[in-house]
Design a protein that fits this description.
Layout: H1 3-18, H2 26-34, H3 41-45, H4 52-59, E1 66-70, H5 77-81, E2 90-95, H6 98-108, E3 114-118, E4 130-136, H7 145-155, E5 156-167, H8 175-186, H9 196-203, E6 205-216, E7 219-232
Parallel strand pairs: 1-2, 1-4, 2-3, 4-5
Antiparallel strand pairs: 5-7, 6-7
Helix pairs in contact: 7-9
Amino acid sequence: MAIPEISADARTLWSLLRGQPRNGSHADNLEAFYAPQAERYDAFRARLLQGRAELIEQLDLRPGYRVVELGCGTGSSLQMMGNTIHSIQRFDMIDLCPALLGEARKRSAGYRTVNIVEGDATTWQPEGAVDIVFMSYSLTMMPQWRNVVANAYSMLAPGGKFGIVDFHLPNAGSRLGNAFWQQWFAHDGVHLSEKHLPLLRSTFNECATTECRAKIPYLPGLRAPYYRFIGKRGA
C-alpha cells in the first residue's frame, strides 16, 4: 500500500477511534463524524463492508425496475450495479448526511435515472410503489430502525423485494464475542442487535439469508459478523 493511502487510512482510523459525537441530533452527529473522512470513506471501508456486490447481484435488478437505496452514503453502490443502472426506470438514493451525499452527487453525475435525496429513512417516500428497496450497512446506524423497516415495507409494490447487508449479533456467536462486537461498533454509532434479523423475517417473506464474517483492516485475526437478507412483500 502506498504511503498516501496509509496516511489517509490513518486519518480515517483516528476518526473511528474518536468515535461518533453523542450530544447533537442524529443528522448532526453523522455529519460531524463523516465529514472529515468522506473522501476516503469508500477506499477504507471497501475492505470492511463486505457482501454489498453479492447483495446487488442477488436482487436481480431488471430493466424498468424502480429502485430505492436507504442510507446510500457516498453512492458506491452505483459502481456495483454496472450497466444495469442505465436500464432501470429510476434509482432514488437516500441519506441523512450532507458530506456523504456530496460524494454521491459527484459519483452519480451523468446518470439520468439516479436521484440523490437528503432525507430520513423513517419517513421519506418515493412518488409511487417501487420494485426494490435495499440497504447496505446503514440499518445499524439508525436509532429508529424498526420504523425504517416498516417504511421500507410500505414503499414496496406487492411482490417487491427488500435486500440488506449489515453487521449483526449471530445466534451462533459466543456471548462474550457478541458483547465485544456490540461494544466495539457502538463507539462509532453502529448498534449491532440480535433483533434485526428476526424482525426482517417476520416482516417479509424470506427468500435468502447468508451469515458471514468480515476481516477488520489492520487487525488480523478479527472477523466481524455480518449477514445478507432478501425478502419479499406479500401480495
